[in-house]
Design goal:
Blueprint lengths: L5 H9 L4 E5 L3 H9 L4 E4 L3 H4 L11 H13 L5 E5 L9 H15 L3 E3 L7 H9 L4 E6 L5 H4 L11 H13 L4 E5 L3 H10 L4 E4 L7 E4 L1 H4 L17 H17 L11
Parallel strand pairs: 1-2, 1-8, 2-3, 3-4, 4-5, 5-6, 6-7, 7-8
Helix pairs in contact: 2-4, 4-5, 5-6
The structure holds 3-methyl-2-oxobutanoic acid and sodium ion.
The site of sodium ion has 4 residues, from loops.
């Protein structure tokens, strides 16, 4: 099967088909997600939190992300790989945004890019998509603006719904092929999904979007501790890996590993 293309995702919406998306930052998870039939992998700037250990996505750089993009692309042949433009790499304007997007395509080898913002970044989306690079937009709660927004907060409640809807229209109008809706009320996500012809991808946006995305370490329970309400854990990798590590450590200490079968 050939690699998924941006236009396939728009066609899937026309057919009323929903699809799953996950983040990936390395070859093994990318290969597993491909085998499990995930059509879109996002090398998210959430690598800041989930790979590099930063408290927010603000510090992560283009140089940090490009090697991860290359790893996910090299490990797969089926999913569309989306590279996430980090904070500071596109805000200055369309010229900077296009320059960064071109680096992601040429040096990262990905098939589309994503950036955060609605009406404020419509010119950037237009410049990148006019250059022949598919753009995934990201509106609602945008983690790169966390310091302005004031923490992880649902966007578009009550009267603010019209703001999110205006952002959705603006990114579609500017040429985005899809749009992530993060932490917006389910009713608002539903309204946007009905209105737009491009697919909506929800995270904390209820059941009525065209697609759903989660950070893989949240989905698989590698991350421990308090999780946002929109996360569902489908495995306990934290528990599995902790247990395996404890057994390895105990067997080394007890002289039970290695044995003759592991010895040349
Ligand atoms: O970086 C990321 O993981 C994201 C998704 C959660 C949409 O932007
Ligand atoms: Na992101």
């Amino acid at each position: 099967t050939r690699r998924v293309r941006a236009r396939d995702l728009v066609a899937a919406k026309e057919r009323g088909e929903r699809w799953p998306m996950l983040t990936s930052y390395d070859q093994y998870t990318a290969a597993i997600f491909e085998e499990a039939g995930i059509p879109v992998l996002l090398v998210g700037d959430s690598a800041a939190n989930n790979v590099f250990g930063y408290p927010t996505t603000v510090p992560v750089t283009v140089e940090d992300l490009l090697p991860l993009v290359r790893a996910v692309v090299r490990a797969t042949s089926y999913p569309l790989v989306v590279g996430d433009l980090p904070f500071g790499s596109y805000e200055e304007g369309p010229t900077q945004a296009l320059r960064t997007a071109v680096r992601f395509m040429k040096e990262g080898g990905c098939h589309a890019v994503k950036l955060e913002g609605g009406r404020q970044v419509a010119e950037q989306i237009r410049a990148i998509s006019d250059a022949g690079i598919p753009v995934m937009a990201h509106i609602g709660f945008t983690p790169q603006r966390e310091h302005t927004i004031g923490g992880y907060r649902v966007q578009g409640r009550g009267d603010a719904a019209d703001e999110v809807v205006a952002d959705a229209r603006a990114v579609a109008e500017a040429g985005a092929f899809s749009v992530v809706l993060e932490m917006v009320p389910g009713e608002v996500a539903k309204r946007i999904t009905h209105e737009l012809t491009i697919p909506t991808i929800g995270i904390g946006a209820g059941p009525d979007t065209d697609a759903q995305v989660l950070v893989w370490q949240d989905m698989a329970g590698l991350r421990s501790g308090r999780m946002p309400r929109f996360v569902k854990r489908y495995a306990d990798l934290h528990g599995t890996l902790t247990e395996a590590t404890r057994r390895f450590a105990a067997e080394v200490r007890g002289g039970e590993f290695p044995t003759a079968e592991h010895t040349f």
